[in-house]
Amino acid sequence: MSDIINAAVTALNEKLAGAGFDGSAKFEIEGEGTVRIDETGASASEADADVTLTADAETFQAILEGEQNATAAFMTGKLSVDGDMGMAMKLGAVLS
Q1: pLDDT for the residue 4
Q2: What DSSP designation does 9 have?
Q3: Beta-ladder partners of 37
Q4: What is the chain's pLDDT, residue by residue, as a tens digit (96 residues)?
Q5: Whole-angstrom Cα distance, residue 57 to residue 84?
Q6: Percent helix / strand / coil, the chain, rounded to 5
Q7: pLDDT of the residue at 95
Q8: What are the phi and psi torsion angles at 34 (to 5°)?
Q9: Cα–Cα distance between 4 and 22 in angstroms, integer?
Q10: Which residue blocks in 1-96 are alpha helix, DSSP H?
Q11: Is 42:53 a contact under the CB 8 Å cutoff?
């Protein structure tokens, strides 16, 4: 597992602490791996999810650090979303 995936799992678990996210989402970080989020938190996993978000490592990191708005990343093609768009919006609200 890459350092980027390990750091993403840690950062996402900190952001999700007590947030009550009740769905599942998967981040595919191009060239690095996959992080899955559900009601138990974030983990390195490729299991199916309600929505899959795909971005390069730089975009993903910028979203996590609050330097990139996820909606703007989607609108400019830096972030692709496959699956339940409502779940993606819910995740965006939890992570902001």
Answers
A1: 87
A2: H
A3: 25, 42
A4: 688 899 999 999 988 887 778 899 999 999 999 999 998 999 999 999 999 999 999 999 998 888 998 889 999 999 999 999 999 988 888 777
A5: 22
A6: 40, 25, 35
A7: 75
A8: -130, 140
A9: 25
A10: 3-16, 57-64, 70-75, 85-95
A11: no
Give the list of residues 6+ apart from residue 65 with CB closer than 8 angstroms, or none.
none
Helix (H) or strand (E) holding 49: none
What residues pair up with 38 in beta bridges, in sequence order? 41
Residue for token pair 């993606």: 88
Query: For residues 88 and 96, what is the distance between their CA atoms, to the nearest angstrom?
Result: 12
Phi, psi of 42 (to 5 degrees): -105, 145
Cβ burial, residue 9 (10 Å; 0-12/13-18/19+): buried
